[in-house]
C-alpha cells in the first residue's frame, strides 16, 4: 500500500510539474505589493493617452471595468463598483465592458488579465488596476483621478 501511495504521489508531482519553467531567482520570488503596483502603473503608462474618442467617449472622470461573466474575481468586484458608482453618482461615470463581447476593445486597451480597471479623464488614462482590489483602494484611486 505504501508503494502504491508513493507511486501515485510521484506521478502527481511529475504531471503537475512538467509544464513549469525553472524560476530564475528561486522558488520564493513572488512580486511584492509595491512591485505589483509598479506593474499596474507601467500598464497604464504603456497606453497612449488620450483614449481615442471613437473607442470610448469620455466627457469626464470615467472608470472602465473590463470583465467577463465567467470570471470569479470580476463577480466579486461588481458589488464594490456598484457601491462606488452610488457614492460618486454624477461625478464619475462607470462603464462595464465584457471582454468576450468586446474583444477588439479589450485588445485596443491591451487587456491581458481580468478584471482590469482603467481610470480615465478626457486627457487620457490616469491609472490602471489589474485584479481584485478592495473598495478602499479603488476609492483612493478615484479620489486621485478627481484631483487631476
Considering the chains and any ligands shown, give keywords for the structure.
148 residues; alpha+beta; Glutaredoxin; 4 strands
CA-to-CA gap between the ends? 67 Å
Residues in helices, as a percent range: 40-55%
Helix count, DSSP H or I runs of 4 or more residues: 5
Strand content: 15-25%
What CATH architecture label of the domain at 70-129 applies?
3-Layer(aba) Sandwich
Order of helices and strands: HHEHEHEEH
The CATH superfamily label of the domain at 70-129 reads Glutaredoxin
Which CATH first-tier class of the domain at 70-129 would you pick?
Alpha Beta
Q: From the helix content, strand content and strand pairing, which structural class follows?
A: alpha+beta
Average pLDDT works out at 74
Give the overall silhouette: globular
Uncertain stretches of 5 or more adjacent residues: 1-38
What fold name stands as the CATH topology of the domain at 70-129?
Answer: Glutaredoxin
Radius of gyration, taken over Cα atoms and rounded to an integer in Å:
20 Å
Q: Sketch the major β-sheet.
A: 4 strands, mixed
Number of strands: 4
Question: Strand order of the main beta sheet, please?
Answer: 2-1-3-4
Amino acid at each position: 500500500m505504501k508503494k502504491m501511495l508513493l507511486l501515485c504521489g510521484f506521478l502527481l508531482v511529475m504531471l503537475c510539474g512538467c509544464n513549469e519553467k525553472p524560476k530564475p531567482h528561486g522558488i520564493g520570488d513572488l512580486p511584492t505589493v509595491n512591485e505589483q503596483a509598479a506593474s499596474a502603473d507601467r500598464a497604464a503608462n504603456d497606453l497612449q493617452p488620450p483614449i481615442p474618442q471613437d473607442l470610448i467617449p469620455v466627457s469626464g472622470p470615467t472608470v472602465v471595468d473590463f470583465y467577463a461573466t465567467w470570471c470569479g474575481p470580476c463577480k466579486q468586484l461588481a458589488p464594490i463598483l456598484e457601491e462606488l458608482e452610488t457614492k460618486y453618482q454624477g461625478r464619475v461615470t462607470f462603464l462595464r465592458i465584457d471582454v468576450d463581447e468586446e474583444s477588439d476593445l479589450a485588445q485596443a486597451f491591451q487587456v491581458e488579465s481580468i478584471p482590469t480597471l482603467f481610470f480615465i479623464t478626457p486627457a487620457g488614462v490616469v491609472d490602471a488596476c489589474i485584479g481584485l482590489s478592495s473598495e478602499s483602494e479603488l476609492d483612493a484611486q478615484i479620489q486621485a483621478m478627481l484631483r487631476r
